[in-house]
Amino acid sequence: MFSRRLTWPCPPNRLSRLVDEKSTRARRLFDLTGSNPTRAGLSYPAEAIAAALADAGAALYEPSARGLGTARAAVAEDAARRGRPVAPDRLLLTASTSEAYALLFKLLADPGETVLVPRPSYPLFDYLAALEGLRVSTYPLAFDDRFSIDLDALESLLDARDTAPPRAVVLVNPNNPTGTALRRGERARLREICGARGVALISDEVFLDYLDQHEADAAARCGDPIVSAASGGEGPAAAPADGALTFALGGLSKSCGLPQMKLGWIVADGPGVLVSEALERLEFIADTYLSVGTPVMRAAGRLLEIGAEIRSAIGRRLAENLEALRRRLNPGSACRLLRRDGGSMGPVAAGSHRGEGGSEGPAHSRDARALLRGEVSRLGRVVGEVEQLRAAPVDELPVVHRP
Ligand SMILES: Cc1ncc(COP(=O)(O)O)c(C=O)c1O
């Protein structure tokens, strides 16, 4: 009767059973995985949001598959203000980043084909791909002081002869959960690798506005700044004639702390001919659904302004949480906060393993299994006993060590 897309086994596990049991008994549970900013005790300018949505023009229906021109212009102006200029005609609006994935997967791959995603990364990829009838394959991250894309491994995977070539490489910038962001040098090589093989690049940049300023400045001083996978701050005119067809994803959900508004966007970048064709096809796909609401598009400019304040509040909260996490991971702790560039996660390595040269930590760890996926310094306050992470079973190795 039903399609096989939805046959995911979701049996209850120890954690979900424990949560169920505690929720029936406890008055209040601290959910450390909570990521809903509207429920994190931040103050939201509710009246200003309501006023932004009260535009009488919203009564008029003017279907536009790419999104209303005024809304795309507002997104472009906001991006320019933050040093990432983009031409409005390179933008397509969606109801969310999740929907953007669905449109792009339809654009780039046929059922049964594969997309490559990083490991570890955003767990929703499995579902987003499966709903489009696609398979997910993973590429590893390297760890050497900080996580980064293992470009050599990625290249080998793209060239593997025993599997069908992937249709797209997905990255999360900064990655969730490792918190590491794309550098200009990495981007150049990534675009070269993907461009040479006709594979598109999809960069999820929903957390790019939450960079650790200290790391961003340090990267810029070294001449290898943190960049978007798209125009790279030099503007659309500088888009290369070669290189990979690239899509950068953003939205109000994370960058403005407004997930309930349902407005996201895709920035298309790369070789001009491919970009034009991709946008035309995307427009066709989007036209089939026309899912972005007129009220939010009419309000986009104002919501982006309001969102800047919410973003600052979220940024402050993240900094506080990170500080709380650091305090807990004092020098005597068996866990250590790893270097990160930004995002909403604080990756923690567990276990104190002395490596060669006496240095401590995962880069030199003999027992790399001690690397945990990471404790989270999300929007909720860090109240967990980080030390308990030691007891967590880690049976998978999420990183590849450089020799
Ligand atoms: C990396 C990443 N991308 C996308 C999303 C979802 O964004 P949206 O609400 O725009 O679908 C999330 C949500 O947690 C996320 O962590």
Roughly how many Å apart are the termini?
A: 51 Å
> Would you count the extended β strands for me?
11
**CATH fold group:** Aspartate Aminotransferase, domain 2
Give the ordered list of helices and strands. Answer: HHHEHEHEEHEHEHEHEHHHEEE
**Whole-number count of domains:** 1
Low-pLDDT stretches are 235-239, 352-403
The CATH architecture category equals 3-Layer(aba) Sandwich
Rg over CA atoms? 21 Å
H/I helix tally: 12
Strand content: 5-15%
Mean pLDDT: 84
- In this structure, how is the largest beta sheet organized? 9 strands, mixed
Query: Structural class, from secondary structure content?
Result: alpha/beta
Q: Secondary-structure blueprint of this entry?
A:
Elements: H1 14-25, H2 46-52, H3 69-81, E1 91-94, H4 97-108, E2 114-119, H5 125-131, E3 135-144, E4 146-149, H6 151-159, E5 168-172, H7 184-196, E6 200-204, H8 213-221, E7 246-251, H9 252-255, E8 264-269, H10 272-289, H11 294-298, H12 300-328, E9 335-337, E10 348-350, E11 399-401
Parallel strand pairs: 2-3, 2-5, 3-11, 5-6, 6-7
Antiparallel strand pairs: 1-8, 3-4, 7-8, 9-10
Helix pairs in contact: 3-12, 4-10
This protein binds pyridoxal-5'-phosphate.
Tell me what you see in this structure.
By secondary structure, this protein is α/β, with parallel strands linked by helices. The chain has one domain (1-403): Aspartate Aminotransferase, domain 2. 34% of the residues lie in helices and 14% in strands. It is built from twelve helices and eleven strands. It has helices at residues 14-25, 46-52, 69-81, 97-108, 125-131, 151-159, 184-196, 213-221, 252-255, 272-289, 294-298, 300-328; strands at 91-94, 114-119, 135-144, 146-149, 168-172, 200-204, 246-251, 264-269, 335-337, 348-350, 399-401. The strands form two sheets. Strands 1, 2, 3, 4, 5, 6, 7, 8 and 11 form a nine-stranded mixed β-sheet that branches. The protein has a two-stranded antiparallel sheet with strand order 9-10. β5, α7 (184-196) and β6 form a beta-alpha-beta unit. The longest helix has 29 residues, at 300-328. The radius of gyration is 21 Å and the shape is globular. The chain binds pyridoxal-5'-phosphate. Pyridoxal-5'-phosphate (PLP) binds at residues 35, 96-98, 122, 172, 176, 204, 206, 251, 253, 259, 264.
